[in-house]
Amino acid sequence: MKKIKFFAMMIAAALTSFSLAACSDDDDNKSSNISNTERYQQEVDATVRAQKTGDKAILLVAFGSTWQQAYDAFDLTAKEYKNEFLGYDVYLSFSSAICINRAMAAENTDARSFYEPKYWLEAFGRVQYKEVVVQSLQVIPGEEYTRVINAMKDFANNSNGDLDDNYLATMTLKLGYPLMAEYPSDVDALANALHTNFGSYASKGAMLFMGHGNPDTYDTYKANIRYTQLEESLQKLNKNYYVGTVDMKENFKTHVHERMVADGLTSGNVYCAPLMSIAGDHAHNDMAGDDDAWDNGYEYNDEGEVEDTSWKLYFQHMGYSIDADSYTDNKGIVKGLLEFSNVRALYKTHTRNAETVDYYHSKNPE
After folding, report:
1. pTM of the entire structure?
2. Which of 184, 208, 292, 346 is deepest in the core (most CB within 10 A)?
Protein backbone atom coordinates (compact mmCIF):
# COMPACT_ATOMS: atom_id res chain seq x y z
CA MET A 1 0.00 0.00 0.00
CA LYS A 2 1.46 3.32 -0.98
CA LYS A 3 1.68 5.74 1.94
CA ILE A 4 2.47 9.41 1.80
CA LYS A 5 5.79 9.88 3.57
CA PHE A 6 7.09 13.02 5.19
CA PHE A 7 9.35 14.88 2.77
CA ALA A 8 11.62 17.83 3.31
CA MET A 9 10.08 20.97 1.88
CA MET A 10 11.65 20.78 -1.57
CA ILE A 11 9.81 22.99 -4.00
CA ALA A 12 12.46 23.82 -6.57
CA ALA A 13 11.32 21.11 -8.99
CA ALA A 14 7.98 22.79 -9.39
CA LEU A 15 9.37 26.21 -10.14
CA THR A 16 10.00 25.51 -13.83
CA SER A 17 6.25 25.40 -14.32
CA PHE A 18 5.87 28.96 -13.01
CA SER A 19 6.05 32.11 -15.07
CA LEU A 20 5.80 35.63 -13.74
CA ALA A 21 3.20 37.86 -15.33
CA ALA A 22 4.20 39.62 -18.61
CA CYS A 23 7.80 40.65 -18.03
CA SER A 24 9.72 42.94 -20.34
CA ASP A 25 13.24 42.10 -21.49
CA ASP A 26 14.59 44.40 -18.78
CA ASP A 27 12.46 42.63 -16.20
CA ASP A 28 13.79 39.29 -17.42
CA ASN A 29 17.37 40.50 -16.95
CA LYS A 30 16.57 41.78 -13.46
CA SER A 31 14.69 38.63 -12.47
CA SER A 32 17.67 36.48 -13.40
CA ASN A 33 19.41 37.89 -10.35
CA ILE A 34 16.84 36.67 -7.83
CA SER A 35 16.66 33.21 -6.33
CA ASN A 36 14.14 30.56 -7.27
CA THR A 37 12.75 30.81 -3.75
CA GLU A 38 12.07 34.50 -4.25
CA ARG A 39 10.46 33.80 -7.64
CA TYR A 40 8.15 31.40 -5.84
CA GLN A 41 7.48 33.99 -3.14
CA GLN A 42 6.58 36.57 -5.78
CA GLU A 43 3.84 34.26 -7.06
CA VAL A 44 2.32 34.13 -3.58
CA ASP A 45 2.80 37.87 -3.07
CA ALA A 46 0.89 38.56 -6.27
CA THR A 47 -1.96 36.31 -5.16
CA VAL A 48 -2.23 38.04 -1.78
CA ARG A 49 -2.09 41.53 -3.28
CA ALA A 50 -4.86 40.57 -5.71
CA GLN A 51 -7.10 39.06 -3.01
CA LYS A 52 -6.48 41.39 -0.06
CA THR A 53 -9.63 43.30 0.88
CA GLY A 54 -9.04 44.17 4.54
CA ASP A 55 -6.62 44.05 7.46
CA LYS A 56 -7.30 40.52 8.71
CA ALA A 57 -6.53 37.11 7.21
CA ILE A 58 -7.25 33.47 7.98
CA LEU A 59 -4.86 30.83 6.66
CA LEU A 60 -6.27 27.29 6.56
CA VAL A 61 -3.42 24.76 6.58
CA ALA A 62 -3.95 21.15 5.48
CA PHE A 63 -1.45 18.41 4.71
CA GLY A 64 -2.75 18.28 1.14
CA SER A 65 -4.01 15.80 -1.42
CA THR A 66 -4.04 15.03 -5.14
CA TRP A 67 -7.72 14.06 -5.31
CA GLN A 68 -10.38 16.32 -6.80
CA GLN A 69 -12.81 15.20 -4.10
CA ALA A 70 -10.36 16.50 -1.50
CA TYR A 71 -10.01 19.81 -3.34
CA ASP A 72 -13.80 20.10 -3.33
CA ALA A 73 -13.86 19.54 0.44
CA PHE A 74 -11.16 22.15 0.98
CA ASP A 75 -12.95 24.62 -1.30
CA LEU A 76 -16.23 24.04 0.54
CA THR A 77 -14.50 24.68 3.86
CA ALA A 78 -12.83 27.86 2.59
CA LYS A 79 -16.16 29.09 1.19
CA GLU A 80 -17.86 28.59 4.56
CA TYR A 81 -15.08 30.48 6.28
CA LYS A 82 -15.46 33.40 3.87
CA ASN A 83 -19.20 33.48 4.53
CA GLU A 84 -18.97 33.20 8.32
CA PHE A 85 -15.78 35.11 9.16
CA LEU A 86 -16.73 38.44 7.69
CA GLY A 87 -13.90 40.93 7.51
CA TYR A 88 -11.28 38.20 7.02
CA ASP A 89 -9.54 37.28 3.80
CA VAL A 90 -9.36 33.48 3.66
CA TYR A 91 -6.51 31.50 2.09
CA LEU A 92 -5.78 27.78 1.81
CA SER A 93 -2.34 26.20 2.17
CA PHE A 94 -0.79 22.73 1.90
CA SER A 95 2.10 21.73 4.14
CA SER A 96 3.14 18.80 1.92
CA ALA A 97 5.61 19.78 -0.78
CA ILE A 98 4.88 16.64 -2.75
CA CYS A 99 1.14 17.37 -2.78
CA ILE A 100 1.83 20.96 -3.83
CA ASN A 101 4.07 19.86 -6.70
CA ARG A 102 1.60 17.25 -7.90
CA ALA A 103 -1.25 19.74 -7.76
CA MET A 104 0.77 22.22 -9.81
CA ALA A 105 1.62 19.49 -12.30
CA ALA A 106 -2.09 18.64 -12.68
CA GLU A 107 -1.34 15.02 -11.86
CA ASN A 108 -4.96 13.96 -11.31
CA THR A 109 -6.92 17.21 -11.78
CA ASP A 110 -6.60 20.66 -13.30
CA ALA A 111 -3.50 22.49 -12.12
CA ARG A 112 -3.89 24.20 -8.73
CA SER A 113 -1.47 26.31 -6.69
CA PHE A 114 -1.65 25.85 -2.93
CA TYR A 115 1.80 26.93 -1.62
CA GLU A 116 3.42 26.19 1.74
CA PRO A 117 2.41 28.14 4.89
CA LYS A 118 5.73 29.96 5.15
CA TYR A 119 5.20 31.66 1.79
CA TRP A 120 1.69 32.78 2.67
CA LEU A 121 2.85 34.20 6.01
CA GLU A 122 5.74 36.03 4.37
CA ALA A 123 3.31 37.53 1.86
CA PHE A 124 0.95 38.54 4.70
CA GLY A 125 3.87 40.31 6.35
CA ARG A 126 4.79 42.13 3.16
CA VAL A 127 1.28 43.58 2.79
CA GLN A 128 1.12 43.98 6.58
CA TYR A 129 -2.11 42.34 7.65
CA LYS A 130 -2.84 43.56 11.16
CA GLU A 131 -4.27 40.21 12.29
CA VAL A 132 -3.43 36.72 11.01
CA VAL A 133 -5.19 33.57 12.20
CA VAL A 134 -3.60 30.26 11.20
CA GLN A 135 -6.05 27.37 11.45
CA SER A 136 -4.61 23.88 11.45
CA LEU A 137 -6.84 21.42 9.56
CA GLN A 138 -4.98 18.47 11.08
CA VAL A 139 -6.91 15.89 13.13
CA ILE A 140 -4.29 15.41 15.87
CA PRO A 141 -1.50 17.74 17.10
CA GLY A 142 1.22 15.55 15.59
CA GLU A 143 4.02 15.77 13.04
CA GLU A 144 2.14 17.84 10.46
CA TYR A 145 0.95 20.24 13.13
CA THR A 146 4.58 21.02 13.99
CA ARG A 147 5.04 22.30 10.44
CA VAL A 148 2.28 24.80 11.07
CA ILE A 149 3.85 25.95 14.33
CA ASN A 150 7.36 26.18 12.88
CA ALA A 151 6.12 28.30 9.97
CA MET A 152 4.48 30.67 12.45
CA LYS A 153 7.66 30.88 14.55
CA ASP A 154 9.78 31.69 11.51
CA PHE A 155 7.35 34.38 10.42
CA ALA A 156 7.15 35.98 13.86
CA ASN A 157 10.93 35.95 14.15
CA ASN A 158 11.42 37.45 10.68
CA SER A 159 13.52 34.50 9.55
CA ASN A 160 14.02 36.03 6.09
CA GLY A 161 15.12 39.30 7.67
CA ASP A 162 13.08 41.45 5.30
CA LEU A 163 9.93 42.30 7.28
CA ASP A 164 9.35 45.39 9.41
CA ASP A 165 10.20 44.56 13.02
CA ASN A 166 7.85 47.26 14.29
CA TYR A 167 5.04 45.66 12.30
CA LEU A 168 5.83 42.18 13.69
CA ALA A 169 5.92 43.53 17.23
CA THR A 170 2.46 45.06 16.93
CA MET A 171 0.48 42.71 14.65
CA THR A 172 -1.71 39.96 16.12
CA LEU A 173 -0.84 36.34 15.31
CA LYS A 174 -3.32 33.66 16.36
CA LEU A 175 -3.37 29.86 16.18
CA GLY A 176 -6.46 27.69 15.74
CA TYR A 177 -5.76 24.24 17.14
CA PRO A 178 -6.26 20.86 15.38
CA LEU A 179 -9.47 18.89 15.68
CA MET A 180 -8.39 16.83 18.71
CA ALA A 181 -5.94 19.24 20.32
CA GLU A 182 -7.36 19.02 23.83
CA TYR A 183 -8.47 16.09 25.97
CA PRO A 184 -11.18 15.45 26.93
CA SER A 185 -13.10 18.42 25.50
CA ASP A 186 -12.06 18.17 21.84
CA VAL A 187 -12.04 14.37 21.83
CA ASP A 188 -15.54 14.17 23.31
CA ALA A 189 -16.83 16.82 20.89
CA LEU A 190 -15.56 14.83 17.91
CA ALA A 191 -16.94 11.59 19.36
CA ASN A 192 -20.38 13.15 19.63
CA ALA A 193 -20.20 14.45 16.06
CA LEU A 194 -19.12 11.05 14.74
CA HIS A 195 -21.88 9.34 16.71
CA THR A 196 -24.40 11.66 15.07
CA ASN A 197 -23.04 10.75 11.64
CA PHE A 198 -22.40 7.02 12.15
CA GLY A 199 -24.54 5.93 15.09
CA SER A 200 -26.94 4.04 12.84
CA TYR A 201 -24.08 1.83 11.66
CA ALA A 202 -22.76 1.18 15.16
CA SER A 203 -26.23 -0.10 16.05
CA LYS A 204 -25.91 -2.76 13.34
CA GLY A 205 -22.30 -3.90 13.74
CA ALA A 206 -18.71 -2.83 14.34
CA MET A 207 -18.09 0.75 13.21
CA LEU A 208 -14.39 1.21 12.46
CA PHE A 209 -12.61 4.53 11.92
CA MET A 210 -9.24 4.61 10.15
CA GLY A 211 -7.00 7.50 11.16
CA HIS A 212 -3.50 8.27 9.95
CA GLY A 213 -1.33 8.30 13.05
CA ASN A 214 2.41 8.84 13.27
CA PRO A 215 5.22 6.27 13.55
CA ASP A 216 6.90 6.41 16.95
CA THR A 217 9.79 8.50 15.60
CA TYR A 218 7.31 11.13 14.36
CA ASP A 219 4.87 11.04 17.28
CA THR A 220 5.30 14.73 18.10
CA TYR A 221 3.68 15.79 21.36
CA LYS A 222 2.75 12.10 21.82
CA ALA A 223 -0.38 12.91 19.84
CA ASN A 224 -1.15 9.29 18.87
CA ILE A 225 -2.85 8.88 22.24
CA ARG A 226 -5.77 10.87 20.83
CA TYR A 227 -6.88 7.86 18.76
CA THR A 228 -7.03 5.66 21.84
CA GLN A 229 -8.85 8.38 23.76
CA LEU A 230 -11.32 8.82 20.91
CA GLU A 231 -12.09 5.10 20.87
CA GLU A 232 -12.72 5.22 24.62
CA SER A 233 -15.00 8.24 24.23
CA LEU A 234 -16.91 6.65 21.36
CA GLN A 235 -17.37 3.40 23.25
CA LYS A 236 -19.17 5.30 26.00
CA LEU A 237 -21.77 6.02 23.32
CA ASN A 238 -21.73 2.55 21.75
CA LYS A 239 -19.40 -0.40 22.42
CA ASN A 240 -19.22 -1.16 18.69
CA TYR A 241 -16.91 1.76 17.85
CA TYR A 242 -13.20 1.17 17.18
CA VAL A 243 -10.42 3.51 16.05
CA GLY A 244 -7.27 2.31 14.26
CA THR A 245 -4.63 3.88 12.04
CA VAL A 246 -2.32 3.26 9.10
CA ASP A 247 0.86 4.41 10.89
CA MET A 248 0.50 4.21 14.67
CA LYS A 249 2.39 1.33 16.25
CA GLU A 250 0.13 -1.24 17.94
CA ASN A 251 -2.96 0.36 16.46
CA PHE A 252 -3.08 -1.05 12.94
CA LYS A 253 -6.13 -2.84 11.55
CA THR A 254 -4.78 -6.11 12.94
CA HIS A 255 -4.78 -4.65 16.45
CA VAL A 256 -8.30 -3.33 15.95
CA HIS A 257 -9.28 -6.89 15.05
CA GLU A 258 -7.64 -8.21 18.21
CA ARG A 259 -9.65 -5.78 20.31
CA MET A 260 -12.84 -6.77 18.53
CA VAL A 261 -12.22 -10.47 19.17
CA ALA A 262 -11.43 -9.76 22.82
CA ASP A 263 -14.81 -8.01 23.03
CA GLY A 264 -16.56 -11.01 21.51
CA LEU A 265 -17.09 -9.49 18.04
CA THR A 266 -15.87 -12.36 15.88
CA SER A 267 -18.41 -12.08 13.06
CA GLY A 268 -21.21 -9.87 11.76
CA ASN A 269 -21.27 -6.56 9.94
CA VAL A 270 -18.24 -4.28 9.81
CA TYR A 271 -18.48 -0.69 8.65
CA CYS A 272 -15.46 1.49 7.83
CA ALA A 273 -14.93 5.25 7.54
CA PRO A 274 -11.82 7.44 7.29
CA LEU A 275 -10.86 9.53 10.32
CA MET A 276 -9.04 12.04 8.13
CA SER A 277 -9.95 15.55 7.08
CA ILE A 278 -10.30 14.48 3.46
CA ALA A 279 -10.79 11.25 1.54
CA GLY A 280 -7.62 10.74 -0.49
CA ASP A 281 -5.20 7.88 -1.15
CA HIS A 282 -5.48 6.40 2.33
CA ALA A 283 -9.27 6.39 2.36
CA HIS A 284 -9.74 5.10 -1.15
CA ASN A 285 -6.85 2.64 -1.17
CA ASP A 286 -5.72 1.66 2.34
CA MET A 287 -9.27 1.50 3.65
CA ALA A 288 -11.62 0.80 0.76
CA GLY A 289 -9.25 -0.40 -1.96
CA ASP A 290 -8.92 -3.75 -3.67
CA ASP A 291 -5.27 -4.50 -2.80
CA ASP A 292 -5.03 -7.88 -1.09
CA ALA A 293 -2.01 -9.93 -0.01
CA TRP A 294 -4.16 -12.90 1.04
CA ASP A 295 -2.81 -16.22 -0.16
CA ASN A 296 -4.50 -18.79 2.08
CA GLY A 297 -3.42 -16.59 4.97
CA TYR A 298 -1.64 -13.36 5.77
CA GLU A 299 2.01 -12.66 6.55
CA TYR A 300 2.40 -10.17 9.39
CA ASN A 301 5.34 -7.76 9.51
CA ASP A 302 7.53 -7.07 12.55
CA GLU A 303 4.99 -4.61 13.94
CA GLY A 304 2.07 -7.00 13.55
CA GLU A 305 0.52 -5.31 10.51
CA VAL A 306 -0.57 -6.89 7.24
CA GLU A 307 0.77 -4.74 4.45
CA ASP A 308 -0.63 -4.32 0.92
CA THR A 309 -4.13 -5.22 2.05
CA SER A 310 -7.05 -2.84 2.53
CA TRP A 311 -9.16 -2.76 5.66
CA LYS A 312 -12.13 -3.82 3.59
CA LEU A 313 -10.54 -7.04 2.35
CA TYR A 314 -8.69 -7.81 5.58
CA PHE A 315 -11.88 -7.87 7.63
CA GLN A 316 -13.66 -9.85 4.94
CA HIS A 317 -10.97 -12.54 5.20
CA MET A 318 -11.31 -12.41 8.98
CA GLY A 319 -14.91 -13.56 8.58
CA TYR A 320 -16.88 -10.32 8.74
CA SER A 321 -19.44 -8.93 6.32
CA ILE A 322 -18.38 -5.58 4.89
CA ASP A 323 -21.17 -3.17 4.05
CA ALA A 324 -19.86 -0.52 1.66
CA ASP A 325 -22.77 1.72 2.62
CA SER A 326 -20.85 2.81 5.70
CA TYR A 327 -17.94 4.42 3.94
CA THR A 328 -19.70 5.69 0.83
CA ASP A 329 -22.67 7.89 0.15
CA ASN A 330 -25.44 6.97 -2.27
CA LYS A 331 -23.12 7.82 -5.16
CA GLY A 332 -20.38 5.48 -3.95
CA ILE A 333 -18.11 8.24 -2.67
CA VAL A 334 -15.91 7.78 0.39
CA LYS A 335 -16.33 10.83 2.63
CA GLY A 336 -13.66 12.60 4.68
CA LEU A 337 -14.31 14.54 7.88
CA LEU A 338 -14.48 17.94 6.17
CA GLU A 339 -17.43 16.68 4.15
CA PHE A 340 -19.54 16.60 7.32
CA SER A 341 -20.98 19.97 8.39
CA ASN A 342 -20.85 19.17 12.11
CA VAL A 343 -17.11 18.41 11.89
CA ARG A 344 -16.45 21.60 9.91
CA ALA A 345 -18.29 23.38 12.72
CA LEU A 346 -15.74 22.03 15.23
CA TYR A 347 -12.86 23.48 13.21
CA LYS A 348 -14.63 26.83 12.98
CA THR A 349 -15.12 26.83 16.74
CA HIS A 350 -11.36 26.39 17.11
CA THR A 351 -10.85 29.35 14.79
CA ARG A 352 -13.21 31.53 16.80
CA ASN A 353 -11.31 30.50 19.94
CA ALA A 354 -7.88 30.90 18.31
CA GLU A 355 -5.26 31.94 20.83
CA THR A 356 -2.84 34.79 20.39
CA VAL A 357 0.71 33.47 20.33
CA ASP A 358 3.85 35.41 21.09
CA TYR A 359 6.73 33.86 19.19
CA TYR A 360 8.47 37.21 18.66
CA HIS A 361 12.17 36.92 19.48
CA SER A 362 11.60 33.44 20.91
CA LYS A 363 12.23 30.45 18.65
CA ASN A 364 11.26 27.97 21.34
CA PRO A 365 8.67 29.50 23.65
CA GLU A 366 7.72 27.53 26.76
Report:
1. 0.87
2. 208
